[in-house]
Amino acid sequence: MTHFADPPGAAADPGVPPPGKRGFSEVLRDLAASDVERVSVGSILHAFGDRAFGALLLVFALPNALPMPPGTSAILGAPIVFIAFQLMIGRPTLWLPRFITERSLARADFATLANKIDPWVHKLERLLKPRLPLLTTPFADRLTGLACFVLSLILALPIPFGNMPPAIALTAFALGMIESDGAAIAAGWLGTIASFVILGLFAGVVSAGLQYFGGPLLRLFGM
């Protein structure tokens, strides 16, 4: 699995635990319980160390797989586009500009988010383990990055109830990268196929609607 370095300017916030091999949910709880006023993207990168790519992908993707207010996917999907592109082109280290690493949430808001996703992550972690190494090679990472890049673009589209499938696929990819679990990566690919099917069905419905209503509307307005 490709390792990712902390970007310049991503110094640890006071009270944020150092990198380690603890579970994602444990590190997330420590970040939420830290004594800082705000939790930045840079501090999340530092806390997860060489697992930062998968961890950050999970932080941005998992909330979209759960019931969230409208517009959330457009906000949380944008960083995924940036990060997935770097994985897709095979960059050996993850680079994030300062305007992203300095983005932050109030610790109380981060704690609310962490409490919302922690039970789901904790359950999933018990199912994960290193396996199917063919799906976690550097070449496989680039293919995973391509899938994540396309999924992040779909995630930003205003498709009714269409955000959850790509978010679930991204979540599976992220968990697979964090734990080197090829089975989770395979689940991500299945989710990717499902997302394409849903996108195709949505496009078909829109096209049919335009054909059905388009003619009468044009005649109504004398066009």
From TrEMBL:
Pfam families: ExoD. InterPro entries: ExoD. The chain crosses the membrane at residues 72-89, 139-161, 193-213. The keyword Acetylation does not apply. It comes from the Bacteria. Keywords: Membrane, Transmembrane, Transmembrane helix. This is Exopolysaccharide biosynthesis protein. It comes from Chelatococcus sambhunathii.
